[in-house]
Amino acid sequence: MTLALATTKPGGPEIFASLQGEGPSMGRPSLFLRLSRCNLACHWCDTAYTWRFTGDNRPHRDGLSFAREANQLVLEETEVIDRLLAFPQDRLVVTGGEPLLQAPALARVLAALKAARPTLHVEIETNGTVTPPPTIDELIDQYNVSPKLSHSGNPADLALIPERLAAWAQSPRAFFKFVVATPADCEEVATLAATYGIPGDRLFVMPEGTDSETLRTREKWLSATALDHGWRMTDRLHIHLYGDTRGT
After folding, report:
1. CA–CA gap between residue 112 and residue 109 (Å, rounded)
2. Would strands 29-34 and 72-76 be described as parallel, antiparallel, or unpaired?
3. pLDDT tens for residues 94-147?
4. All domains in the chain, ordered by first residue
5. 33 and 94 in contact (C-beta within 8 Å)?
6. In Å, what is the CA distance from 83 to each residue of 1, 65, 78, 92, 124?
7. Is 241 annotated as a binding residue?
8. Short-list 178, 169, 99, 176, CA closest to 140
9. Measured between alpha carbons, how far is 30 from 33 in angstroms, rounded to an integer?
10. 221 is in an annotated binding site
């Protein structure tokens, strides 16, 4: 059994330790596992190398495509487990891409990890469109759910699935993280929050951007909006520390 992972340059699996850069766990020392493949295609995606392989013509603002053989690495589940257990961190963040597309294999990996390290805290970063099967749901301590707004370029019927949004809103393990670039995006967030009853203490707004200047500029007006609505705001700490780079 195998998992498809993203790669770092020059092509090793994207498994790394860092400080969590976003959301409710921002600043916490964490171990990251970045998986390949995604069912959505955001125009501003900063990990397009996980899905926009040569021949994939879904729009992206950079217009870049990536050779699959250099940017996707298929490993045996046992090798993934061994690589992860070599790190001492007790918080694992599984990201992508969309990790839940590989839920069966991922569930087996997580079960083995938790058996070997019972204190392991597992977070899944998801776009919120995929239902986690029970075999993996029972192993997850926290979901970081990032529904994609209209400015992502994804059709709403693919990106904003009502039954999934309602289910996430009702789960105390699910924290919402909305990527925003303009005040109009915040209006869309407010509508979704009201429609699905997303509580403010589990709703984060985050500026879109891959450089510190853009993030700081957007945070100036976004902070006031978050205060007005009772939302939480998150920075992108890893961008300030390391830039827009893989494995950070």
Report:
1. 5
2. unpaired
3. 999 999 999 999 999 999 999 999 999 999 999 999 999 999 999 999 999 999
4. 2-242 (3.20.20.70)
5. yes
6. 16, 28, 9, 12, 18
7. no
8. 99
9. 10
10. no
Q: Do 122 and 114 meet the contact criterion of CB atoms below 8 Å apart?
A: yes
Question: Sign of dihedral through CA atoms 21, 53, 180, 160?
Answer: negative
* 11 annotated binding-site participant: no
* pLDDT tens, position by position, 30-87: 999 999 999 999 999 999 999 999 999 999 999 999 999 999 999 999 999 999 999 9
Strand order of the β-sheet with 29-34 is 15-19, 29-34, 91-95, 121-126, 142-145, 174-180, 203-207, 232-233
Separation of alpha carbons 167 and 169, rounded Å: 5
Has 148 been labeled as part of a binding site?
A: yes
- Return d(Cα 205, Cα 223) in angstroms, integer: 9
Query: What does the DSSP 8-state code read for residue 208?
Result: -
What is the mean predicted confidence (pLDDT) over 12-36?
98
Residue 150 is assigned to a ligand binding site: no
Q: Is 68 annotated as a binding residue?
A: no
Q: Any known ligand binding at 146? A: yes
- 63 Rama sector, left if φ>0, alpha if ψ -120 to 50, beta otherwise: left
For 133, the 3-state DSSP assignment is coil
Are the beta carbons of 248 and 241 closer than 8 angstroms?
A: yes
Residues in a beta bridge with 205: 178, 233
Flag whether 186 is marked binding: no
Alpha-carbon torsion angle 193, 123, 110, 67, nearest 10: 90
